[in-house]
Specification:
The chain is an alpha+beta fold. 43% of the residues lie in helices and 18% in strands. The C terminus is likely disordered.
Length: 639
């Protein structure tokens, strides 16, 4: 196909075939902004450019951005549907209605294709001879169920290959504590193990009574034999099995098929899809999804987009899907789902009875979630964007979108490190956080350390900007090349002046404010343009400032601890002869830091628990490179 350089929309519209296919809209930068399918490419694509055609504000905005389009012809509308789905997943175009959740659901997998099957956790369902149960909405519940099955039914959990591994390795701990039959020892026959597997399959199919009876019998027998620990173990397993059984809410005792119940709630450009999962006649879970839609978009089209995106991401398709309303292109959608499942799938709109009540219940749940989400978003906006607006008003700034804050961490003579945290629209942008190991500053000098961190951060940013400008990519600012609207310094006037000096030297103009603390080390105001601005402790702006401070401090401390754990930061005592880990630890406990230690006399050093005269002398000499007083005893010099 042609690209946007020599593309004439009028000429290309005339060339469109009257065939099924997928069309792909590009903007002036060649980015894909929309993907759609059509029974007739000629009729569908032309509609976008007809003045009388109205598809809503969002689509009109999209059409104005189309610089060129391309298309792929298919043999059938179903092929177009599959291709459209794949392209949307690949490119996530700006103007396609998109799910805001992209989840894969967990399954319980029984590896029946193996000589000695296992029960495993899986997020994919393959045609590999295994039996799958699910999908489930809680990964934690799936793992708990798998652990329970392994204990109750004595199913192996190792990854050894049998029968080749029988007798070649020592049995694992599970064998010794009675939770594995010991396939690796050869003491259990394939027939005996198959009985365990059948019990596990019965359990997963919801037949709990045989397992409960077996555990009750074993508990009573152990109690009669006065094996009370074993009886207590069976009692706990009984409780776990009963709890698992109670979680399975029966929807209908007569209907055992798998089905999904789907309902929609919509308000303005937000929509919530509620889905109930029914497996073997039992509701095993539910989930809701948020979608961004057009105000004028029809529910049938929203549901179609949901079905397409949801079932392309999950390996399991139920036999029946019940909804509030028929979807656009329902025949094609049924064909696609049937092809994906490998057997007939039905999309249905129930009018009465239990299924209709379930759809209504799902709809009520969707409306509740949508309303709650609106309230949550409103509160969240007050905590984030609203808080930033409040801070901007205090400082007399028009707006603030990006804030950067810096902190320095030095602990007990260990290497100094710096941190940079970024908040955008009132939320931490952790992908933009940066760590600094100080190169030019040695010892506890916060001002010099901050100068180095700020100089490195903005020098690097200027270099990245020059590189982007040389490549003609000025608009692609990111990483260090993107500068903040405001810099917050945790240190009052001194740190603010250091930051201003660095920015002036680099000829960068960015507002800088200091977070002023009271005598109790609590923020009481902002220092900005030579004036201390008082702030209300009950305001969202104050809470955001506190979060920024805490995050900068936390990130610096976390980095410092990481370096210490890795052994990349060494103590000033590491190379002192006769000072091992225990003495070093006692010295650090006794003195508040290396400065206090360096001011101590040899006698004082010798009073530290675990120290003797020779060790005290070695520490003193190490801290005073030119030597100093010599510890004596009975008038004799101690070497």
């Amino acid at each position: 196909m042609s690209n946007g350089q020599d593309f004439s929309i009028e000429e290309e519209l005339a060339k469109l075939p009257d065939s099924p296919g997928v069309y792909i809209m590009h903007d002036a930068k060649d980015a894909i902004i929309y993907v759609g399918k059509a029974l007739s490419l000629r009729h569908r694509v032309r509609q976008y450019f007809q003045p009388s055609h109205d598809e809503g504000i969002k689509k009109a905005r999209m059409v104005r951005q189309i610089a060129w389009f391309e298309y792929i012809v298919t043999d059938t509308e179903m092929e177009a549907l599959v291709l459209e789905c794949n392209l949307i997943k690949e490119h996530r175009p700006k103007y396609n209605t998109m799910l805001r959740d992209d989840k894969t659901y967990p399954y319980i997998k029984v590896t029946l294709g193996e000589p000695y099957p296992r029960v495993l956790f899986s997020r994919q369902m393959k045609k590999d001879g295994s039996r799958y149960f699910g999908p489930f909405t809680s990964a934690g519940a799936v793992k708990d169920t798998i652990d329970l099955i392994r204990k109750v039914c004595h199913i192996r959990s190792c990854s050894r290959v049998f029968p080749d591994s029988i007798g070649k390795e020592r049995p694992c701990l599970n064998y010794h504590i009675g939770q594995c039959p010991g396939v690796c020892t050869g003491k259990i026959t394939p027939e005996e193990y198959d009985k365990n597997v059948r019990e596990a399959l019965d359990f997963l199919n919801g037949h709990y009574r045989p397992i409960l009876s077996m555990l009750e019998e074993k508990m009573e027998r152990a109690s009669e034999n006065m094996e009370f620990e074993k009886a207590a173990e069976y009692r706990d397993l009984l409780g776990s099995v009963r709890a698992c059984a109670e979680k399975q809410k029966v929807t209908s005792a007569q209907e055992r098929d798998d089905k999904d119940i789907i309902a929609l709630a919509q308000k303005d450009e937000d929509a919530v899809i509620q889905i109930f999962f029914i497996r073997g006649g039992k509701m095993v879970g539910r989930e809701h999804f948020f979608m961004t839609v057009r105000i004028e978009e029809e529910p049938s089209e929203i549901l179609r987009q949901f079905l397409q995106q949801f079932y392309s991401n999950t390996p399991f398709v139920p036999r029946e899907i019940y909804m509030q309303t028929a979807v656009a292109g329902q025949d094609v959608m049924e064909e696609w789902l049937s092809d994906k499942k490998g057997r007939r799938v039905y999309l249905k709109v129930p009018q009465k009875g239990m299924k209709n009540r379930l759809v209504e219940l799902a709809a009520r749940n969707a409306e509740t979630v949508l309303e709650q989400d609106k309230e949550r978003l409103k509160k969240e906006e007050g905590r984030t964007i609203g808080a930033q607006k409040e801070i901007a008003a205090w400082l007399g700034m028009e707006k603030i979108e990006r804030v950067e804050a810096f902190d320095i961490s030095t602990i007990n003579g260990f290497q100094t490190v710096g941190s940079m945290v970024v908040f955008e629209k009132g939320k931490p942008l952790k992908s933009a956080y940066r760590k600094f190991k100080l190169r030019t500053v040695h010892g506890p000098d916060d001002y010099a350390s901050m100068r180095e961190v700020l100089t490195r951060r903005f020098t690097h940013g200027l270099a990245e900007r020059e590189e982007l400008q040389a490549q003609g990519r000025d608009e692609e600012l990111g990483g260090f090349s993107r500068f903040p609207d405001l810099i917050m310094m945790d240190g009052g006037l001194g740190q603010v002046n250091i930051c201003r000096e660095v920015l002036e030297e680099l000829q960068i103009e960015i507002p800088v404010c200091g977070m002023v603390k009271d005598d109790h080390h609590r923020t009481r105001g902002l220092y900005y343009n030579g004036v201390e601005i008082p702030i209300s402790r009950d305001s969202e702006g104050f809470r955001l400032i506190t979060r920024v401070q805490d995050e900068a401090h936390r990130f610096a401390i976390e980095y410092h601890r990481l370096l210490r754990r890795k052994g990349q930061v060494s103590s000033v005592l590491d190379n002192v002869p006769g000072i091992g880990p225990k003495r070093r630890r006692e010295l650090m406990r006794y003195f508040s830091g290396t400065e206090e230690m360096a001011q101590a006399s040899v006698e004082t050093l010798a009073q530290v628990p675990g120290m003797d005269a020779r060790a005290a002398q070695a520490v003193y000499r190490h801290l005073h490179a030119e030597g100093g007083e010599t510890l004596t005893k009975d008038g004799k010099t101690l070497q």
